[in-house]
From TrEMBL:
Domain of life: Bacteria
Cross-referenced NCBIfam families: RelE_StbE
Keyword line: Toxin-antitoxin system
The protein, known as: mRNA interferase RelE/StbE
Keyword hit for rRNA-binding: no
Family according to the record: Belongs to the RelE toxin family.
Species per Swiss-Prot/TrEMBL record: Candidatus Kentrum sp. DK
Pfam name, any one: ParE_toxin
Length: 95
């Protein structure tokens, strides 16, 4: 089963703000490993709390996603360096 990966405007802006090699690694990881897998949860880890968000580790960067099982959709909501990506994640996403 192939998964569709979409990026929010915020996630795209964050991708554009990082260096090209890191952005390319993140996009390749999401397209080649996550989108093609049968279960995207085996590659990630659930964030603690009632957020329903998952994170994927790509080197020193993290991709925060929401998985919508019924639509086979993975929505990337935040992308950033591991030191910064978790700051205010609940407040900024409306939780």
């Amino acid at each position: 089963m192939a998964w569709e990966i979409r990026y929010t405007d915020t996630a795209l802006k964050q991708l554009r703000g990082m260096d090209r090699s890191a952005a390319r690694r993140i996009l390749d990881y999401m397209d080649q490993r996550i989108a093609r897998g049968a279960n995207p949860r085996i590659f990630g880890k659930a964030l603690s709390g009632p957020t329903g968000l998952w994170r994927y580790r790509v080197g020193n960067y993290r991709v925060i996603c929401r998985i919508r099982e019924e639509k086979c959709l993975i929505l990337a909501v935040r992308i950033g360096h591991r030191k910064e990506v978790y700051r205010n994640v609940n407040r900024n996403l409306g939780f």
